[in-house]
């Protein structure tokens, strides 16, 4: 069974971790969650409330990380998923998280990123010349990294499949599963 790794941490958006986790398992892949440390992670729920200029955040589900970033060998995995939430704000500073992302881009392997996930891709130096979606308020971050921002639910640029946030989960993961099939990566 082929394996896919999800790179995340505390304060990741619950729906952006669990939807790909379960959707990719359903498609027949073994899915591992990697974080700065192998520990129980606390996810959050972002929602939109009338009268607020941005999303609100509440505690979400917790889940155990399977492996620490330092222990990940990217060659053991066929693809990587980078969910959003606030986790990418700090995991983008992790040398091993950047190493892992860069390894997938270096071998042109499938990469899925959503919401604030492209912050990690930008920190890894892999967005220059690419087209990506992200949480719309990150358009400036994407552009400063040398990429073209597109506000879409399933933006595909070669091996990269990106989206804005959890409301795009269905189209985002649908396009990612298609990218896995196009890359001839069996479940």
TrEMBL record:
Domain of life of the organism encoding this protein: Bacteria
Cross-referenced SUPFAM superfamilies: Class I glutamine amidotransferase-like (SSF52317)
Domain DJ-1/PfpI: 3-178
InterPro entries xrefs: C56_PfpI-like, Class_I_gatase-like, DJ-1/PfpI
Transmembrane segments: none
CDD domains assigned to the protein according to its UniProt record, in alphabetical order: GATase1_PfpI_1
Family under the similarity heading: Belongs to the peptidase C56 family.
Descriptive protein name: DJ-1/PfpI family protein
